[in-house]
Design a protein that fits this description.
The protein is α+β, with helices and mostly antiparallel strands. The chain has three domains: about 35 residues, no CATH class; about 60 residues, Double Stranded RNA Binding Domain; about 50 residues, no CATH class. The chain contains six helices and nine strands; from the N terminus they run E-E-E-H-E-E-H-E-E-H-E-E-H-H-H. It has a three-stranded antiparallel β-sheet with strand order 1-3-2. Strands 4-5 form a two-stranded antiparallel sheet. Strands 6-7 form a two-stranded antiparallel sheet. Strand 8 and strand 9 form a beta hairpin. It is found in: Nucleus. One of its GO terms (cellular component) is nucleus. Belongs to the krueppel C2H2-type zinc-finger protein family. Its main location: nucleus. It comes from Neogobius melanostomus.
Length: about 180
């Protein structure tokens, strides 16, 4: 069974491989992971039930991240662009690998340092580093988008957890058109 989830792993099928005491081994395919959470995520690829089907080809995934990555093969959306050449990539890790191998640029991130998040419209490829700008784009250009419906649902759930006097009002939900821009 093939699996392409998360950071690289190594397989213990080879003769020279022996997992160290801190490693976590998949009992199905014998792949080894340095962290329990990586093994737990990987185990989903062996499940016969796939909760998230691709709307283009029907292939199923158990993780929305894997579905999103797969769908970009159909849509051609490549939000991670190299600033040194014309190449663009579907995943940040592919861009970083390209920068290192082709341009000799090594990304310098501290241990567990988060990279800046970009918000990607999976309908047209629009990208923004600002969530407000992204949701404004979604509202204006793709008002029926499932991503926008999920956002509205999350906002409603967040507001339900507050008492009526504490409820937050999101300005982006107030207007159907951005009169305030």
């Amino acid at each position: 069974v093939g699996c392409n989830t998360g950071p690289p792993f190594y397989s213990c099928r080879g003769l020279n491989c022996s997992p160290s005491s801190g490693d976590f081994v998949c009992q199905v395919c014998h792949k080894v992971f340095p962290l329990q959470r990586m093994l737990t995520r990987h185990l989903k690829c062996h499940s016969l039930v796939k909760r998230h089907p691709c709307r283009y080809c029907g292939k199923g995934f158990n993780d929305t991240f894997d579905l999103k990555r797969h769908m970009r093969t159909h849509t051609g959306i490549r939000p991670y662009k190299c600033e040194l050449c014309e190449k663009a990539f579907t995943q940040r890790c592919s861009l970083e690998s390209h920068m290192r191998k082709i341009h000799g640029v090594q990304q310098q991130y501290a241990y567990r340092q988060r990279r800046s998040k970009i918000f990607v419209c999976e309908d047209c490829g629009f990208t923004s580093s600002r969530p407000d700008e992204y949701f404004l784009h979604m509202r204006q250009c793709h008002p029926g988008s499932p991503a926008l419906r999920r956002y509205y649902r999350r906002q409603a759930q967040d507001n339900d957890s507050f008492s009526p006097t504490e409820r937050k009002v999101n300005p982006y939900l107030l207007y159907s058109r951005p009169y305030y821009m």
